[in-house]
Design brief:
Helix content: under 10%
Order of helices and strands: EEEHEEEEEEEEEEEEEEEEEEE
Shape: globular
Structural class: mainly beta
Number of strands: 22
Length: 318
């Protein structure tokens, strides 16, 4: 792991969609809402938070046996998974200086989060992102009339052994008291073949009242899910202006250095990524980086088949 990018609709039962390429969007307009959509928590399994015991006790008179049908009057029984605010001490390897960083964590859940939150102490808006979110881009806009948050990100996955990849997109909210929580969301399933993709956009717009004045507040979260073959090795070729090879360096995925100083005569670099499909056929993808590029990017896949995009800083000679 070279670089971490720091940057979670609502269903009572899981919904699975078999998709190889699709785009969905949902939009809600909510006035004077107390809890605001602030991001997503992506999990591998359905986030079962429904309080069935409470529902049965509260509706005992209307249940006569057989299958239990949860009707529309069940809002109060939909549970919440609260994030815990934890402190982490980061140490500068060069100076030894320590910095305390606070982050919200959803404990005991296999998945990854991508959300913004407002710091109650100073009103600043911060963001939280797992390394699984590649190509992450977040923007925050604030004026007297409007607050706007925009998130974009991609999740790259190597095909597993079960022939399908399933994710659940669970919405994350922030209450007026500052607490962060997730609620059960919807799921989808992707074909495990290379190139399968799925995208979803969540939008919410609300009108809030601050000091007697109405203000528009909105958030847009766009997520793209893409499958790719698992990288097996990375080869970096340094080329001169005549396209002759000056050097050839081979790395295991995840072992490409954090910084690279190309040779003085290097005009551009070709990054080759070698992958094999289920039949053993080797596939090679190539990316070209020239002196205008400050970083080159490669992938490695972690234990859960999520492929992490890492950056290597290029320190070109003058």
């Amino acid at each position: 792991m070279k670089i971490k990018q720091w940057l979670a609709v609502l269903l009572v039962v899981p919904c699975i969609l078999s998709l190889t390429g699709c785009q969905l969007a949902s939009e809600n307009t909510i006035e004077n809402t107390k809890d605001r959509l602030t991001g997503v928590l992506i999990t591998y399994e359905y986030l079962d938070l429904f309080d069935y015991d409470g529902y049965l006790k509260g509706n005992a008179s209307g249940i006569s046996g057989g299958d239990i049908q949860v009707d529309g009057d069940s809002e109060q029984y939909r549970g919440r998974l609260y994030a815990i605010l934890k402190e982490q001490v980061l140490t500068n390897e060069d100076t030894g200086e320590e910095t305390v960083v606070k982050e919200y964590v959803f404990e005991d859940v296999e998945g990854f989060a991508y959300f913004a939150f407002k710091d109650s102490s100073n009103g600043a808006v911060n963001s939280r992102s797992d390394e699984a979110i590649s190509d992450g881009n977040s923007s925050f806009f604030s004026s007297d009339d409007e607050d706007k948050i925009t998130f974009e990100g991609s999740i790259y996955t190597a095909p597993g052994n079960n022939g399908a990849i399933t994710y659940y997109i669970n919405p994350v909210y922030q209450s007026n008291d500052g607490s962060i929580y997730a609620m059960s969301g919807s799921g989808f399933s992707m074909d495990a073949s290379k190139g399968a993709s799925y995208s979803q956009t969540l939008n919410e717009t609300a009108t809030v009242t601050e000091n007697g004045t109405n203000k528009k507040s909105s958030i847009s979260i766009k997520l793209s899910f893409v499958t790719m073959f698992q990288p097996e090795k990375i080869v970096l070729l340094q080329m001169n202006s005549d396209s002759a090879i000056l050097s050839k360096d081979e790395y295991a995925p995840g072992e490409v250095p954090e910084t690279l100083t190309p040779k003085a005569d290097t005009n551009y670099i070709v990054a080759e990524t070698y992958k094999s499909d289920s039949a053993g056929t080797v596939h090679v993808t190539r990316e070209l980086y020239d002196r205008q590029d400050e970083y080159l990017y490669t992938f490695f896949c972690r234990y859960d088949n999520i492929c992490i995009k890492t950056g290597t800083q290029l320190e070109w000679a003058e």
